[in-house]
Amino acid sequence: MYQYDQYDQAMVDARVEEFRDQARRRLEGKLTEDQFKPLRLMNGLYLQLHAYMLRVAIPYGTLNSRQMTVLGDIADKYDRGYGHFTTRQNIQYNWIKLEDAADILADLAKVEMHAIQTSGNCIRNISSDHFAGATHDEIIDPRPYAELMRQWSSFHPEFTYLPRKFKICVIASEKDRAAMRLHDIGIQIVKNADGEVGARFFVGGGMGRTPMVAPMIRDFVPLDQLITYAEACLRVYNRYGRRDNKYKARIKILVHELGKEEYTRQVEEEFAHLLEQGVEPPHEELARIAKHFGDPAFEDGPKTVDRSDPDFALWVDRNSHRHKHDAYVSAVISLKPVGGIPGDATGEQIRIMARLAKQYSFDELRIMHTQNVVLPHVKIADLHALWTELDAAGLGAPNMDTIEDMIACPGLDYCALANARSIPLAQRISERFDASGKTEKLGELKLKISGCINACGHHHAGHIGILGVDKKGVENYQLSLGGSEAEDVSLAKITGPGFTEDGVIEALETVTDVYLERKEGEERFLDTYRRIGMEPFKEALYG
Amino acid sequence: MKVLTGNDLKTGDVIWWTGEGWSRHVDDAVDTGEQGEQILATEEAARRVNVPYMIEATREDDGSVRPAHIKDRVRALGPTVRPDLTLKPKSPEALDWII
Amino acid sequence: MVEQPATDLGTSPDDVQFRFRDDEMVDHATVTVDACCDQTNATAVRIEPGDDTRVLLPFLDRLALVEVNFPSFADGRGYSAARILREAGYTGELRAVGDVLIDQLSHMRRCGFDSFAPDKPLDEEDAARAFATWENVYQHAFDTHGGKRHTIIEKRHG
Q1: What does the domain layout of chain A look like in residue ranges?
Q2: Residue-wise pLDDT tens digits, C55-73
Q3: Superfamily designation of domain C6-133
Q4: Which chains touch A (3 or more CB pairs under 8 A)?
Q5: ipTM rounded to 2 decimals
Q6: Interface probe, candidates A50, A100, A470, chain B, greatest B C-beta count within 10 A
Q7: Is the Cβ–Cβ distance between A50 and B14 less than 8 Å?
Q8: Which residues 26-85 of B are in CB contact (within 8 Å) with A?
């Protein structure tokens, strides 16, 4: 993975000092909160329900064991012993003091980490496929391009005060494991008819109040024009994105209101102009970065496991992903123990995962946007030993992509924006479906829970989505069906009137019963819904 | 009653106006009546509170203060899913109070 | 030709707190973008966030001063306005006015601003520190155009 050189290190160090100075001026009263807020947000520091929350960047979800260990140590030293992995591959700490923030950033900088631009109206963490560099089905590792874009977007002087936040995703496979079409800019690295590698740009996706799937703006941008094209997309947005209404300020609204053709025309015009200016980094830089992403020293070995232990076999079946090398798999560490808080891990568990990565995965981990952790390169021969340790640490839940593997945002327990709690709902659902054995029967079912319309839980893209709302001061939940954030992207449709917390759990039982009754062959819930439509579910729910 | 709340600037702790200063315990909150806005402005300017605002609350029979909105009750006590991290970790009925 | 009255537009040299030019400061009334296009003798113009900067491109030769207004520091359209002007070859004074605060100075400078007239005077020491925040930069902007300064990536590859 990428290693900082002296320049990268100097940049994060300068940023720590800049923030330390800003925090000092805030505490001295030289900056009002209105003036300080955008600055602290651009260093990942929110003021949430209980305290300051710090969101640390994990660029394209990749980190090593040394970095993971520090993340665990920060949880213990500065927070209350745990961290939360997020739907953008970052980590959050919920109990941070402003007076400690600069020191935490300094600790992070020592291991080549930071909280730069993880909030604010600027370009955020660039996300990618959590199986990048390991999976059998990518045309190339997308992460060097993500790293190139990370550097381009860091402290970009023109794009630091955008109309709103800006989220970019880069993948390099037909399969979309990173919700690429639901980003402000989604980039799919593709090969053209001549075998050349280039970037397909999708612009204007997003969830929140007005969910939209990003339309394709350009089929093929040569890789030596990638940054120039991205800059053109951003400049048009910076100039013409709406600034009159916070809820209409994302680029998806601009693309929608201009229309895809007109937005594209403006981008192409700006692109032609910027090509003349020569803003593209020298092409040698991509080669330099790519050298950091070479394959580790894979060894041959067994290609199958001993399945005599059914618990182990189940975990292997559910939690491994096919690797490009036939003696390896990518292993998913579930942070969704039954009845647990989705995406949370204690400082101790974080350090355990770091150690396991060093021992079993060439010192590398990935964070999934579904709030789990991946060990990308695990020898099949080592799987049993790994699983034994994971199980002992409470990290061995064999539930990837089942209903128990739900995404849940922090919700009203933690977040100032929320209307309802999402975590208790998630806990009750996983307990119930595990106890009844229904998890197993349902197979692949992507449940996503958001505590408010901002959709950090991605409920619009859930096979089943739940949205928490405020109904006259009481928590209420809307159910939606049929969303997908994979390459078969679709937005979920709401079933009808909302439910109480007890009611939505019953509703979940009802709709999954409909699926089990009506499924044909090996259909997933999503497939059955797409085949039979909303009516049978609506009928069962509301009579 | 109208109660003032906000966060401590340095630590981020949730705090409540007691009439003389700021407390971490909601039961210490007083009814500021019509003076609320003025107190907020003074306290914020002096940086004794960050992002303060007024909320509705009721004084219960036992003297405790109950914020009207569930969000402020979560702020007052702590996350319902981590009773150990709330201000009343040994008190099971505290979670019922939030909801 | 009737001159557009300056009214509230235009900062005077007294309002300029930081300047990175050696030439004489322009002391003309600044006109709006619309007025500038109508008048053949306007030499100083003010751009508001909603203006299309490129409307001024035919007139750059006669402009000695362009002010870019930041009514709120959070409205970043002025940064694009500045780069667009510099990319078009504008060499006159480019002045950031309005809600210009310490923490925006270095980015403004990178985008091509060479003079600053904040609504509220800024602390000189804080400003000096702010201008010097970034010894190196990742991406191209006006300050790296034409090789005046090299980006980190250029330095890596000689």
Answers
A1: 6-109, 142-289, 313-392, 407-542
A2: 999 999 999 999 999 999 9
A3: Aldolase class I (3.20.20.70)
A4: B, C
A5: 0.96
A6: A50
A7: yes
A8: 44, 47, 50-51, 68-71, 74-75, 78-82, 85
